[in-house]
Amino acid sequence: MAAIFRTLLLLLTLSESFIGILTIGVGVNYGRIANNLPPPSQVSNLLRSLNITRVKIYDADQQVLQAFAGTDIEFIIGLGNEYLQRMRDPQQAQTWIQQNVQPYLSQTKITCINVGNEVLGGEDTQLASYLLPAMKTMYGALVTLGLNKQVYITTAHSLQILATSFPPSQGAFQENLIQYIQPILNFHAQVDSPFFINAYPYFAYKSDPNNVPLEYVLFEPNSGSIDPRTNLKYDNMLYAQIDAVYSAIKALGHSDIEVKISETGWPSKGDENEAGATVENAGIYNRNLMQRMQQGQSTPARPSQPIDIYVFALFNENQKTGPTSERNFGLYYPDGSLVYNLGVKSYILPRIDYSSSMKNGLSILSLLILLLGSLFIER
After folding, report:
1. Percent of the chain at pLDDT above 70?
2. How far, in Å, CA of 57 to CA of 111, rounded?
3. Catalytic residue positions?
4. What is the pTM of this model?
5. How confident is the model at residue 362, as a pLDDT?
6. Which helix (H) or strand (E) holds 311?
7. 347 — phi, psi (to 5°)?
8. DSSP letter string, 172-223
9. Is the pLDDT of residue 348 over 80?
């Protein structure tokens, strides 16, 4: 019987592998600046087969939201920077939510509207002045429609808003941005929404590869760094960056706001002057990151606060502008094949052809049924 039990267990394991059951412990950014991506319905199948439960998009695309109806996947949708000026008008904000959120809420689990992306730190100070009013007006519209307990409002920032990021305990925002950030923090505290930051250790390495240890940014074994003020040890840059943001927020009087990583990732290809942009490094970064998130790790300064991360990105996007790296942050090629093996132990990452995986899984299950039937006949 013991041998039979082991056989059954093996078959069950194989059936799960073929069906592609996997939990990678992170959310994922589903960017779509490309002309060769699979339709949202196929992407929905892929993400469900991976057991990914959190997705972030940069708009409120109708096809995407419909494709994920009934999946129980939590969605962060985006309000583009181009809408900020208009969304200061309460009527326009309410109309946008009525058209882009309300019709889908019964079937698609929209939990957040990300108002603007990396607005602060750029050269457009006029746009920066629109940000908080748009956030407040969008929140007010949610209240009016009775949705503010179901959907929260935030905005995603780049790390350029920091003037100091090391040591983490001395993290501080740029002085000229505090006039915008202070009231945004007050808003987050008032409505209990998180502070989003896009953090990329890759860019720190790219800008100074001779002095930034590659192992430190890739979560590989290294001597780490010590914060001289707290004596806390950091074995990777991302955790140091997160704690630097917490310190900057605390310096402005808030210890009641959660920081979430709305984007992080590593490119698998770059131009000649883009140090470290390789398939090998991208695979190491994301494998190590996902393993740490599966373990529920926290940062040294926030040991009781699990890290919440959205990996960038699901697909390579061939129409993004800028250096080659910008088009090569994806975990998948558009045809559904992995750019690199994520190496998650005991799991197989599926291709987008979900139906064939299901057939293989059903074949294994059929063998299970036959084997069980023969056991009963013998008895």
Report:
1. 84
2. 12
3. 118, 263
4. 0.85
5. 40
6. strand 309-312
7. -130, 155
8. EE-GGGHHHHHHHHHHHHHHT-PEEEE--HHHHHHH-TTTS-HHHHTT-S--
9. no
